[in-house]
Every structure is written in C-alpha cells, then in structure tokens.
Write a structure and sequence with these properties.
14 strands; two-stranded parallel ribbon; binds fe (ii) ion; hydrolase; alpha/beta; 181 residues; 3 helices
Length: 181
C-alpha cells in the first residue's frame, strides 16, 4: 500500500493515526504462515512507547487477533501469544477506550486490563456459535455485520449493524398511532 505512508515499508505494520479526536493505534499480530497471532517483546515495547507519549488522550487499539479466550475452542487454538503482557500494559492506561479485534468472525466482548476488548462480526461468513468443548471448526452464513464506533460527548459508543436488505424503516409514530414502548 505505497500511498499509505503511515504503514511504513518494512518490519511490523504498527502505526498511530493522530488526526482524530480518538487516537488510533494499529498493532501487528501476524505470525507469518500461521493462524495464531503474537505480540512479541519488540511489538509490545513499541506499544509501550506510543502509549507513554499521550497517556491521557482517548485511545483505541486495533489488531487482528483478540487477546482473550472466547469459548469457541477451534478459534482459541489459534489465539494470541503475549496477551498477558498486553493486559498488564493496558491496565496502566485508563485512557484506552477499546481494543478492537477481528479473527473470530463473531461479535464478542470481554473486560480486559480495565478496558473493553471485542471482536467484530465478519463482513463475510461467521464462526459457528458453538461453545461445546472441542466442537469441530465450522462457519455459518449468518448475515454479515460490522461495528460503528461513535465518539460523542466524550465517550465511545459502539453500534453493531447487520448487512442485508430488510423491510422498513417504519416510523414509530404517525398522525393516528404510536407504537413506541
Ligand atoms: Fe484470522
């Protein structure tokens, strides 16, 4: 992506985006050729230095692999190495609003290091929601989804949407009736 200067040209693809009300920090969890991820010492040292630069500014971390066990065993088997060290680091920075991840292809949330960590639904297939131990790896064609994170009134508000074509929108209120609760 040569037009994206902030990505750099070599090494881990980790970067910050500073031009928004919320500071964005991208982390590279890739282990080349493998399904699992890693935040090695080198990557965590880089993160520690970035966090120390602006310890009070609202900040959002994003990366591919979630730093927590989800209960979907076949995905957890391809989880993130280094999550405990990340958690210790994050705990020192209450300005971290979210840790946003993908990988598991389901909307999942968990408290992590004093902040909220989550996986986003996939824009393609979803992992099967099967929390039975050792369930075989499977995906389902549930509607694709996305998350929208709104910075408003000094807080980050996360909406999850589902893609597709649905009836509506219908007005809650018309001249002769209301169906508002
Ligand atoms: Fe993945």
């Amino acid at each position: 992506m040569p037009s994206h200067d902030y990505l750099g040209r070599e090494g881990f693809i980790q970067y910050t985006l500073e031009a928004y009300p919320v500071r964005l920090i991208g982390l590279d969890t890739l282990v080349s050729g493998e399904g699992h991820g890693e935040l090695c010492t080198k990557r965590l040292i880089w993160l520690a230095a970035r966090l120390a630069e602006q310890p009070t500014r609202p900040t959002l971390l994003f990366m591919h692999h979630p730093p927590f066990v989800t209960g979907i065993d076949h995905m957890d088997a391809k989880g993130l190495t280094g999550a405990h060290k990340l958690e210790a680091l994050v705990r020192d920075y209450p300005n971290i609003e979210r840790i946003l991840c993908g990988h598991v292809h389901r909307p999942i949330f968990r408290r992590f290091g004093g902040t909220i960590a989550s996986c986003c639904p996939s824009t393609a297939h979803q992992s099967e929601l099967n929390l039975a131990g050792h369930a075989s790896a499977a995906f389902v064609m549930e509607p694709p989804g996305y998350q929208l994170h709104l910075w408003k009134d000094g807080a980050l508000i996360t909406h999850t949407g589902v893609m597709g074509t649905y009836d509506g929108p219908y007005a809650f209120r018309t001249a002769d009736r209301s169906i508002e609760g």
